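Agenda item 2: adenosine monophosphate complex prediction
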Amino acid sequence: MDILLMGPPGAGKGTQGALLAQALGIPKFATGDLLRDAVKRGSPLGLQAKAVMEAGHLVGDEIILGVIREELGKPEAAKGVIYDGVVRTIPQAEGMERILSEKGRRMDAVLFFDVTDQEILSRLDRRREVEQRADDDPAAVTTRLRAYRQQTAPVLAWYEARDRVHTVPAVGSVEEIATRVRDALGK
Ligand code: AMP
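Presented output:
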């Protein structure tokens, strides 16, 4: 099963994605984690992505689609993947559909983690203290939320038009939200 997790930064996609991956026995793939690791290692991908990420902008579609294609070529991805924040623009949604269809698959479900902006801002404030991510500073957070509204929110409409979206109210305890996620998927 291929499942896409969507929602603004700080909506809980990472936490819930890890739980869901464990429950379904399939891997979780997050482009954000992969890019952060590339930046840390100073690989060519990391060098390309570093400044864009730190400013809170989106990395180019061609780069992201290359990374997705590589990930989906791995044997462990054969039975499905939980994608965390992986599709953030319409060209990425179209490209992802093409890559999956080459394997006789499609995005089976899109989980939209619904949270208010106010809640997001206070969560990211707390996360900055704990994780010290460069892109959780206030200026980058504003840019990331703008990128989300302008480029990623339309992706939700793209999947809604294809009847794939399940909305999960993403406020409450981790366990409560995990139960909503499993209910939405019928698992
Ligand atoms: P995240 O950890 O998902 O919040 O991602 C951190 C940053 O990585 C984002 O603000 C973007 O700069 C970049 N990024 C991650 N995934 C994507 C994607 N699918 N498309 C474009 N940029 C991405």
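Discussion summary: Helices lie at 13-24, 31-41, 44-55, 61-72, 90-101, 117-131, 138-160, 174-185.
Owner for follow-up: CH.
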